[in-house]
Design brief:
Length: 380
Amino acid sequence: MFSWTDDQKMLAQSVSDLSRRKLAPYAEKIDESEGFNDEGFKAIAEMGLLGITADEKYGGSALGALEATLVMEKLAEGCASTTLSYLAHAILCVNNLQENASEDQKEKFLPGLISGAKIGGMAMTEPQAGSDALNQKTRAVRKGAKYILNGTKMFITNGPVGDVFVVYARTGENKKQLSTFIVEKGMPGFRVGNKLRKLGMRGSPTSELIFDQCEVPAENLVGKENESVSHMMHNLNIERITISGISLGLAAASVAYATKYASERSQFGRPISSYQMIQERLAEMATQLDAGRALCYTAARAYDEGADTMSLGAKAKLFSAQIATKAGLDAIQILGGYGYMKEYPVERYMRDAKLMEIGAGTNEVMRLIIAKELVGAWGE
């Protein structure tokens, strides 16, 4: 098993307790209503987790990808939807600003985001630019002391509830001439589009973001104009590693519920857990989960140690997403007809897990990243 320090074990236990008390009891409700667990998010903020990778002087915890991935797993065991919103806030927004923003920008935006006074998100995907992230059409043009943004972003986690967004926009003609802007709710020309109805992760509000002659102060440009591709890719790497923790949490929840059910449910005079076919399925689920943990936490540790590779994070995301979806399907099969009913949580685990095979880069894109590095190494 993976080796943890005493501090990391304490963190895992504390987050598990929070997840059990503040997230799990509301997971079904926010899934049904397509709502948002405000109280759960506040509880996460009170633990100091909204700025888990941010500097302590802004209120952050100054921890690494390893701890962030661990937190994702433990939170997702209780509610994957709330955890997805947490990831968009803590990694896609806060970590991005911690890594790339100026000192003035950090002082202005990070304390409010880390305290939970404001909710953050990131806007990269567009209607015609999903996997092809460099094919974005949203454009920003400098006019005096402002940039004028025009375009639409799609599938934006926390869109309906967010206050601060890290937004990528094209500022030149070259495909790689992208820039990053901090856009706040209420800026002229910025509005939230349709809230999107989804198969899973229904308790994580998602929407379009629309920029129609949106006026963004020039001081909200993050880094230098036309030079955002490198830090966009770097943030994608930590996103893929940490989102793998959500997949692990979903798989763990499926294993736990299916095992409990199989031990309590009797057919033909004995618990179904005594039947070899059920034992085989549970054993495979548990083995896949532990293999996923080993890969994901190895990737997280490598990231923290400065490893310059995209493929390890891609492997972690690909494998963990696959085992999460399969674990959900296996749990449904073990529960039989009850597994198909909304009164039981395993059908939600499966629906939530399917997004892990799509968001933050599809399984197909992960395979391309892995293969590209393999072929490159072979060519050398």
